[in-house]
Every structure is written in structure tokens, then in C-alpha cells.
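Residues pack. One example:


***
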Amino acid sequence: MLAQVFTHIEQNHLDAALGQTEKLLKLYPTFRLGHLIKGDILLARSRPLVTLGNVANAPHGKLDDLREEAIARLKAYRDKPPTDYVPRYLLQMHPEQKYAVVVDTQKARLYLYQNSNGQPRFVADYYISHGKAGSDKAREGDKKTPVGVYHVTASLPRQKLTDFYGSGAFPISYPNEWDKRQGRNGHGIWLHGTPSDTFSRPPKASDGCVVLANQDLDALAKNLQIGTTPVIISNSIEWLSLDDWQAERAALSRSIEEWRYDWESLDTDKYLRHYSKRFQAGSHNYEQWSALKRQVNAGKQWIKVSAANISMFRNPGKEEMVVVTFDQDYRSSNLSNIMKKRQYWMKEDGAWKIIYEGGT
């Protein structure tokens, strides 16, 4: 409806724009940007429109916020990603992950994708607010939104929250394993709604959370699975054609399969070639990990490893890295176990290497 209002204004069809704006405000009476636009249209009857918020002596901060929201919404309507492209980050969802969330902080937009037989399929997108100080969260209280691969960890209903959080909240898993390794801290990063007297907030308005209009959060909430749905937050989304996406996915899948095969071979040197010299897991660095694996393998007669329900999500940060999670079934001549494992694979000299590994 807002896009139609902007189109009418550009075509100088002010009566049509006013009628559409009044319909919009009847449905969403707390939409402040809509009220500002209505005022502009009424003023335009007596003088030309120069800018959004075409009034004298208005509070500058609030006008700037509403202008930023208008620009973000308008750009989203007019600069939609190609229908045959997908976010680079969604390399593979495992069968139980029905949906994935991808956030573009630069465009103040959240995209919802469905797992359609292993291929991401666009479902919907929503306007969002994020951190007052931008993205790339590094420390507690910096008012930034984190960038990385996370998942929904809980659902907090409206009844357990103050009105500030609107119709509910969904905490996400910041800081993740890589954040902690990089020394990033902080907590309480949520997807949540808006107060009852506010339809939407400016693009940069939160203390680090991702904020949606309540009706959008309610629509999104129907598709969120606690502990399962990935939430990938990026400064700016990279889009891939399906052919390029398939090629990236296949290359990493081959590396994972080679790692599994080399582990089963009991050739420790071959197995260790999959690990970065910068590998770190718990208290083990690469040298300690290598020594441990040589000692363990020396006592084995055979090893069988299977990896099921594999998910692969490319990290949108500066590092060329993918977060891989799977169900590992490990069997050997003297020990067997089943666990959910998470690995961080990083591209080094053109080859994928494991830089972190641990249980989830």
C-alpha cells in the first residue's frame, strides 16, 4: 500500500495518494510514517513538495528517522533480488529445517526462505529495525547487531514480556562459537516486536536486536522452530544464481566427504590435512589435536563414520567460512558414540580446512 502511495505522489496524482494513505492509516493507525506522508500530501495542495516531512519547525531527529524508514522501505520495493537467485549463505538446510531467516542490516530487511527439497525458496520479506550503532557487534552494550550464523533458541510469549517487546520475542544464539573465539561478548539478542503504540521503528533504533512490526513478527513466528531455524545476519546479502549456488555447495560437500573417508582410512596424516594450522577446539590447538588423534588412531583396528542431516551455512562476515552441523555416528573397534557435531570450515589457499570442531 505504501509503494502505491509513493507511485501516486511521483505521478502527481495527489488525490489518489491521499485516498490510499487514508486506507493505510485506517488499517494501521499507529504507522507514524503514514501520518507524516498524509500531512505532506495535504500541504502539497498549497505548495510544492520539497522533501519528506515538508513542515517547518518539526523535530529534526524524528523527521530524519522517518525519512530513513521511508527510503529503506522504498528501496526494498524497487530493488528486490532476482527471483532465480538465492542468498549465498543458505548452502544446505537439513531436512528438519523447514525455514531459514536471512537479515540484511544495510537494507533494513528480513527474508524468509523455505526448504524446498534442499533448495531455498523465497517466501516473504519484511522491514526491520536493527542496532542504533549499526552491525558487527563486538561487545556488551555497543548497541550493534551481530553478524554471523545463529539459530532461534527460545520463544518468549507476550505475557512474559513488557509492552516494549510487542507480540513476543525469539532469542538467538549470539555469541556463537566463532564469536567467543574472536573475543566478542554480550547477550540478549532477540527477534521481537514493537510497543502497542508503535507500528514500526526507524531502521537504526534497537540496542542490537532485530525488530519487526508485530503483525510481521506474528507471521514470521508461525515458521520458526526453536533450536532449529537458522538466523543469518549480514551487513549486505550476497546473491548467487542457482548454478553458482549448486557449485559452491557441491565443492564443500566433497571436502566433507573426503574428511570422513580419510578419518575412516586410519591414515592420520591424510585425516589431519583437512585441519587448519589455526585449528582450535576447547583447550586443543592444532599440534595438541594432532598428537591426540595419532594416539587415538594407534589403538584402533577400524573406524566407521557417518554424517547425516548435514546443514551448511556460509558465514556472512569478513572470513570466507562455512558453519557445518550434522549428526555424527562414530563406530570403531573399541568405542562407539552418536553426537551432533558442529565444524567451522575456512578457505585457506583455495582449499577448505576445519578451523573449529565441537559438539553442539
User: Anything to note?
Assistant: The chain has nine helices and 20 strands. Residues 241-359 form a domain with the Nuclear Transport Factor 2; Chain: A, fold (CATH 3.10.450.50). Residues 287 and 323 are 23 Å apart (CA to CA).
